[in-house]
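Lab channel / #folding
Pinned by the channel admin:
"Please post every new chain as: sequence first, then the structure tokens as a reply. Keep commentary short and put observations after the output so the thread stays searchable."

First post following the new format, from NK:
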Amino acid sequence: MSDRPIIGISMGDPAGCGPELSVKVMRNPDIYKMCRPVVVGDAQMIEDSLRILKDTTTKVNRISSIKDAKFELGTIDVYHMDLVDMSKFEYGKVSAMCGEAAFQAVVKVIELAMNGEIDATVTNALNKEAINLAGHHYSGHTEIYADYTKTKKYAMMLAGDDLRVVHVSTHVSLLEACRRAKKDRELECIRLANQACKQIGIANPKVAVCGLNPHAGENGLFGDEEIKEIIPAVEQAKAEGINVEGPIPADTAFSKARGGWYDVLVVQYHDQGHIPLKVLGFVYNKEEKKWGAVTGVNITLGLPIIRVSVDHGTAFGHAGQGIQNELSLINSIQYAVQFANHKDIK
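Reply from TO:
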């Protein structure tokens, strides 16, 4: 077991699906074949999820140090932080208490990774309103990780199967996203995308950069950002030895990537990357009127530690019912293990 990476999994918002999903993956024997997992958060929530799932055999091992973890199938190791007052707790409800619990679990998992006690971190979904109610004014996990690791240059990568995208900008207005499409940022994202692919075992990644404008600007007819900012970044990346192409029209880029033309796409703004990934990964069964597969992961590139996250929300409307699909969390752990196993590759 000692050669398998230790993966710290933050619980997410207690009122959401994170505790339930954590239990489901920690009962999966395949997870223990690839890594040594530990949940970081509140043992009471994990115990309550076992109750909801009618599991009377799986045990919870409360720990306050990673060295006390057992890493055994049938026992869920929980780095217990005593964050939730169960007398005030309610599933599916936004609250400052749950926001604080989710936030502190993330801070702890970052601390454990920065101290070298775990090899990678995986995050369940938190609620932005709840963490802000608790007094922590961040727009999401990515910004928390950047702040607590003192990282200035970072980017979000979404991945689902063999489709991967790295974002030039994310949680900003579309107008601001256009302003941020500058040469230095484009080049930074190309480099991060190339390195990330190498760290999951792709020896010579094929990188493509999407255009910002329709038809990638049509030689300046629909905007000049491609000519002034994106093309110079692509040319410099090529001079550095990166196998990169672009800018290419975004309306054909994803079909080409799915067809094996590219290993990763650099996309210009939030929805340009998120919509294709979620169309493929989030499958709703209209006959049964419920979600089937919910796949895809969110990876923060450029950090000194490994961070992979589920690519879905807290599912407050269905929390506490035992019906959530854990596939995205499994995918996240798989990616975290890949990064941990190739962490020395630059």
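NK: The chain has a mean pLDDT of 92.
TO: also worth noting, The longest helix spans residues 96-114.
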